[in-house]
Amino acid sequence: MAEVKEPRDGVQIDLISGQRMAGLTGMEKIRIILDGVREGNIVILEEGLSPDEESRLIEVTMTEISPDEFNGIEIETYPRSETADASFLDRLMGKESTNKLTVIGPANQIETLHKDETLIQTLVSRR
Amino acid sequence: MGLLTDLRSSIARAAASLFSEEEPKRIGIYGPPNAGKTTLANRIARDWTEHGDAVGPESHIPHETRRARRKENVEIERDGKTVNIDIVDTPGVTTKVDYTEFLEHDMEEDDAVRRSREATEGVAEAMHWLREDVDGVIYVLDAAEDPFTQVNTMLIGIIESQDLPVLILANKIDLEEASVKRIRDAFPQHETTPLSALEGDNMDEVYDRIAEYFG
Hints:
The complex is a heterodimer of chains A (127) and B (215).
Chain A: E1 13-16, H1 18-22, H2 26-38, E2 42-45, H3 51-64, E3 73-77, H4 82-85, H5 88-92, E4 102-106, E5 110-115, E6 120-124
Parallel strand pairs in A: 1-2
Antiparallel strand pairs in A: 2-4, 3-4, 5-6
Helix pairs in contact in A: 2-3
Chain B: H1 2-20, E1 25-30, H2 37-48, E2 69-78, E3 81-89, H3 100-103, H4 109-132, E4 136-142, H5 150-161, E5 166-171, H6 180-186, E6 192-194, H7 203-214
Parallel strand pairs in B: 1-3, 1-4, 4-5, 5-6
Antiparallel strand pairs in B: 2-3
């Protein structure tokens, strides 16, 4: 991430644009997310991750969980409907739509209050 | 000439027997922790394998299954046909594991920490199987719980993106608070089949669907 000011007493939110993520490999994206989350930040992705990247994010998160240090992540996106609707050809060409705003935070700091197809309400607490 | 023909035909027969038998499809049983995946795997194994050995221990404590376990050559008979599958019981998928939650189940701290470490390894293993090693998925949900969770949404999305056939099962319909409709509403793009793996309710329909989806 770019250099940031010393965090004060609060919760840092990293809003990452689709453009910034577009040029990165899957692993680089996962690193950006987990590095931010492990520092206690809330990471918001403008365009979310592909299903394969989500699968790898879960896998890498699991390898990093450590008792009393890191319990894992809470992740929320709007329910994916495009994937099911995308044609086989679109998926074959990697054109499936993944542009769903995604919120990711440390499991011990973020709690989902409500979620439906159009609204995600989360409660974020300090460490 | 006759000898040569005999030889050729016996080679052809041997080759046919080598390649004609299809490899059993590997069907992964996936879902969140405590949905009843192992209870289902054990019931299928008991119903359709010769010795009926259990696939793994069942427990109400989350993350009892911390390694993927494969039961090979499960032959399910439906309408005079036999469907041969390997069932892979996988650890419940989650994005977080907190060892202190195991302490609430009267577990010593050392055991809880060990269980959480094994659980995280198990989830990573389950994800790897899903990407690399399964031909179809039975997705098990606890019908008494809210299906609208991020893990369910992500996993169904991952399964769909790989074009794997997926059978959604609404388990634990024996519980009073169970709602099959809630699961149908959450995943309207898929057919949902209700059952109680524990009580054996509606297993005939489950086996019909397994044969239909994976046969």
